């Protein structure tokens, strides 16, 4: 069975601080995919990044960066120099090769001015 | 390009009443998903369609939930009768042709159901 754990329920930061969201996953599959989605107050889930199990290269996109480590089954997400618009719930998700997504419980990020 | 469209956005009903949700996926997307998101939790898959065929409905409570995707485009999710525990946000998502874990799923805004 697949499982995704986001241990942090809520993180509060002041604008311009960095924030790191932890994600730990469990799977017996050798081929799998990891995702991060953002859910702003409007409710619509917005895709941020996808990683397959064979690509451990870290990625940076603007103020966002992701650290994938198979050795620790983790796929952490960092927002650098946070902004108020980053306030949202962030979900880590794990997909098998058939596209069945298993989401974590989410981490609420609150950025105050 | 239009995104995934869902209606209604909000629905309030009394328990034991029926309710239906509608989803129109992104044009050309053959795979369609229905998720349920309880408060403070991540979405949970209810059913997945490849064109008209429900290829994964293992999580759908079939005693009261039903879904259909006629002509492989729009989809309707129905609950009859609704129970208090069905209060949640129902999300529809679609992805491009082919079943693959690599496919990004595009989500609609959801329908927030409140059962009184």
SSE diagram, text form:
The complex is a heterodimer of chains A (113) and B (116).
Chain A: E1 3-5, E2 10-14, E3 19-21, E4 24-26, E5 33-39, E6 46-52, E7 59-61, E8 64-69, E9 74-79, E10 88-95, E11 101-103, E12 107-112
Parallel strand pairs in A: 2-12
Antiparallel strand pairs in A: 1-4, 3-9, 5-6, 5-10, 7-8, 8-9, 10-11, 10-12
Chain B: E1 5-7, E2 10-13, E3 19-24, E4 31-37, E5 44-50, E6 53-56, E7 65-68, E8 75-79, E9 88-95, E10 106-107, E11 111-115
Parallel strand pairs in B: 2-11
Antiparallel strand pairs in B: 1-3, 3-8, 4-5, 4-9, 5-6, 7-8, 9-10, 9-11
Which terms would index this structure?
heterodimer; A: 113 residues; mainly beta; six-stranded mixed β-sheet; four-stranded antiparallel β-sheet; 12 strands; 0% helix; globular; B: 116 residues
Helix content of chain A: under 10%
Helix vs. strand class of chain A? mainly beta
First and last CA, distance of chain B: 37 Å
Shape verdict of chain B: globular
Anisotropy-based shape of chain A: globular
Please state the oligomeric state of the protein chains shown.
heterodimer
Major sheet of chain B: 7 strands, mixed
Estimated radius of gyration of chain A: 14 Å
Query: What's the helical proportion of residues of chain B?
Result: under 10%
Q: What is the number of beta strands of chain A?
A: 12
What is the number of beta strands of chain B?
11
């Amino acid at each position: 069975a697949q499982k995704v754990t986001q241990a942090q329920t809520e993180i509060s930061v002041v604008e311009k601080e960095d924030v790191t969201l932890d994600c730990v996953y469990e799977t017996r599959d050798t081929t799998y995919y990891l995702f991060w989605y953002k859910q702003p107050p409007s409710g619509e889930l917005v895709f941020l990044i996808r990683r397959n199990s064979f690509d451990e290269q870290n990625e940076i996109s603007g103020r966002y960066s992701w650290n994938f480590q198979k050795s620790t089954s983790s796929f952490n997400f960092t927002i650098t120099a946070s902004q108020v618009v980053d306030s949202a719930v962030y979900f880590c998700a794990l997909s098998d090769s058939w596209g069945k997504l298993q989401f974590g419980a989410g981490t609420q990020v609150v950025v105050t001015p | 390009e239009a995104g995934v469209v869902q209606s209604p956005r909000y629905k309030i009903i009394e328990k034991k009443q029926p309710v239906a949700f509608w989803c129109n996926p992104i044009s050309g997307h053959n795979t369609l998903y229905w998720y349920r998101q309880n408060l403070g939790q991540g979405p949970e898959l209810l059913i997945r369609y490849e064109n008209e065929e429900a290829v994964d409905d293992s999580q759908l409570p079939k005693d009261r939930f039903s879904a259909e995707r006629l002509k492989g485009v729009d989809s309707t999710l129905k609950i009859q009768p609704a129970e208090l525990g069905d209060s949640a946000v129902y999300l529809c998502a679609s992805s491009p042709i082919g079943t693959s874990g690599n496919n990004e799923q595009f989500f609609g805004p959801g329908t927030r159901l409140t059962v009184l």
